[in-house]
Design a protein that fits this description.
There is one protein chain. By secondary structure, the protein is of the alpha+beta class. It is built from 26 helices and ten strands. 56% of the residues lie in helices and 9% in strands. Strand 7 and strand 8 form a beta hairpin. The longest helix is centred in the C-terminal third of the chain and has 26 residues. It is elongated.
């Protein structure tokens, strides 16, 4: 191998790499700001004499127009569009029904599904698609987002090794082999790999990732972090209502069987008599949220009830022969913390509702409000009798100016109610979004179109994804402002700012010099140790530069080493292409950068969890290559 001389430019790049790693690990400043700082320093250094090749004006900001960054922006918009239709919430519900609400059962389902999906689409796309799903699951199960995002993200990366189209390095590999064949003798020509040639190894890696987090997740995954989930806001509101108004209750789902003496009675009479709140009914598949107070109960039916378990069990369920289900089933979607909760609504002076009762106003039907209490002056009126006040039929109370209505409602209905000047919405910390289930066909149509463009055409990945994102906007699944809001700009700046550094590592010959030094140390070692050395080298390179760049640089070196040492050049090249997916130690991989913000991860979290995963990846991938090749 031709000797590579260490130049002054290379030393500068090595110093900048060390500085970048220091900023990432120490977290003296935010990681996205650290990446921007490094880009600025790189641009400044490139203006000095003798360092012009570090970067030029075009390369310095090329990351912002790179295929990878534009692809990430597009998949975030597509994922937000699917979530806006409520589709991701339904997927979350399906997962919870199949896997329950425990971390040990949810992680294998989510991670395994993402792993399989990412074998046929870009892993960052699969991760972005499931990010809203795990957010919904986190809100409903109270499992911190930080304990779900990393298993999902890591398995998305691992899933890219299941097929030859699952990751960019594997897609490039066959082209690199064909190019290398031109310089090889006839007896050493390499055959291209088939679509499923790597599938056994990829499945082994995904299974390893799933088992890793299922068995060791309780120790290696961080606890509650991040932006503060909607569920957290809902729990805070519930605690506030309990402390302020003395309303203590939980949500239950009750089954009303045939023959129950409850049949034929009105909801209003039942709520007043038993100090409970019936917030939903379901009869023969017809579900009503915030049903009218004069609704008559039929059977077999399901009721969504807010009340104290003791009261509900002893004074309601047992006398009427009802069954209290262990958790919400039919109403799981409707009363998830991301969909509904307790809020405060004030009656302003001059409101047209003054002097009328909630029953007269039909607030349940018109606004979806289930009134839990009315706070007036120093007094709180509610169905529940406490030491401070007697039980009151709040539906019949005539409303006055200044009354605070404590209500249970769906957030979508509350958002629409803000335009009604007869009410003032006091609660602000709730998900103020309006779902568009009527747009689900448009969203699915553009999603399928995007997949078809990716799988069956040669269209640039970013262009295919942008076509789907623009389709979401033109069809009004999302507004333009909502599309902008869906993008995690910290992720975009993190990745875009690091791309010039990776280019400098490659363009200045620093990467080639590092490779030469390591491979010189391995000279004369057994063939299998050379292969392991290449895998480790590819792992290191993919942490500081793009996996595509690492593949393009190392595959020719791997083929040369194999030819000179008597190894199989195709297997050595495959080793490199697979190992460039071993990117778990720091959040430079697109998927890791994507999940870092929403889950509130720090670099140390990736070092702790990713360090073990990196070693497992090397062991399992080398074992798989030995077994199947």
């Amino acid at each position: 191998m031709q000797a590579t001389v260490l130049t002054f430019e290379m030393m500068v790049v090595l110093g900048l790499l060390a500085f970048t790693v220091f900023l990432f690990v120490s977290e003296i400043i935010r990681i996205d700001l650290a990446a921007i700082l490094v880009m600025v320093i790189l641009g400044g250094l490139s203006t000095l004499p003798g360092l012009e090749t570090l970067s030029n004006g075009a390369d310095l900001f090329s990351g912002f127009s790179s295929n990878a960054v534009i692809s990430i922006i597009a998949v975030m918009i597509i994922g937000a569009g699917l979530d806006k239709t409520g589709l991701m919430s339904k997927v979350a519900t399906l997962i919870l029904k199949r896997g329950g609400t425990t971390e040990a059962r949810i992680i294998p389902i989510v991670s395994g599904t993402v792993g399989v999906i990412s074998s046929f689409m870009q892993n960052v796309g699969a991760a972005a698609l499931f990010l809203p799903v795990i957010s919904r699951i986190s809100a409903r199960t109270e499992i911190p987002m930080s304990r779900l995002a990393m298993p999902m993200g890591f398995c998305a990366i691992l899933g890219g090794t299941i097929t030859m189209v699952g990751s960019s390095p594997l897609i490039l590999l066959n082209d690199l082999l064909i190019s290398a064949n031109r310089t090889l003798p006839a007896d050493q020509q390499m055959e291209p790999f088939g679509l499923f040639s790597v599938t056994p190894i990829g499945l082994m890696l995904v299974l390893t990732g799933v088992l890793y987090f299922v068995l060791l997740g309780r120790w290696i995954l961080p606890g509650q972090r991040g932006r503060g989930e909607d569920a957290g806001a809902a729990r805070s509101m519930q605690a506030y209502v309990e402390n302020t108004y003395g309303l203590r209750a939980d949500m239950f789902e009750v089954r009303v069987p045939e023959g129950s003496i409850l049949i034929g009675q009105k909801l209003a009479d039942i709520m007043v008599a038993h100090h409970i709140y019936i917030l939903g009914t379901s009869y023969k598949g017809h579900k009503v949220i915030a049903p009218m107070a004069d609704t008559v109960i039929e059977a077999p039916a399901r009721l969504a009830i807010l009340g104290l378990r003791r009261v509900l069990q002893d004074e309601f369920a047992e006398p009427y022969g009802l069954e209290i289900l262990p958790g919400l089933d039919v109403f799981a979607d409707d009363f998830a913390a991301t969909e509904s909760g307790v809020a405060e609504v004030v009656i302003p002076p001059g409101s047209s509702v003054i002097g009328q009762s909630p029953i007269d106003l039909r607030l349940r039907q018109t606004h979806g409000l289930s009134i839990l209490a009315i706070h007036r002056g120093e007094e709180t009126l509610s169905h529940v009798e406490t030491d401070d006040h007697v039980a009151t039929h709040v539906g019949e109370v005539l409303l006055q100016a200044g009354d605070t209505l404590v209500v249970h409602t769906q957030w979508e209905r509350l958002t629409r109610m803000k335009s009604d000047q007869n009410f003032v919405i006091v609660t602000s910390d709730y998900p103020q979004e309006e779902l568009r289930p009527h747009k689900v066909n448009w969203a699915l149509g553009f999603f399928v179109m995007t997949l078809c463009l990716i799988l069956f055409t040669d269209l640039l990945l970013s262009l295919a994804l942008l076509a789907g994102a623009v389709g979401m906007i033109l069809s009004r699944v999302l507004s333009v402002d909502e599309a902008y809001a869906a993008v995690s700009w910290s992720t975009v700046f993190l990745l875009a700012s690091l791309i010039p550094l990776g280019m400098a590592v490659q363009n200045t010959g620093t990467a080639a010099w590092i490779a030469a030094q390591i491979l010189t140390l391995l000279d004369g070692w057994p063939v299998w140790s050379l292969q392991v050395g290449l895998a480790i080298l590819a792992t290191i390179f993919t942490l500081v530069m793009s996996n595509v760049g690492a593949t393009v640089l190392l595959v020719p070196l791997a083929i040369s080493i194999a030819v000179s040492s008597g190894g199989d050049p195709a297997i050595f090249a495959l080793t490199v292409a697979i190992s460039t997916s071993n990117s778990f130690l720091i959040p430079t991989h697109q998927v890791n950068a994507l999940i870092m913000g929403p889950a509130g991860y720090r670099v140390v979290d990736f070092i702790r969890s990713g360090g073990i995963m990196t070693i497992l990846f090397l062991v399992v991938s080398m074992t798989g290559l030995a077994l199947f090749f």
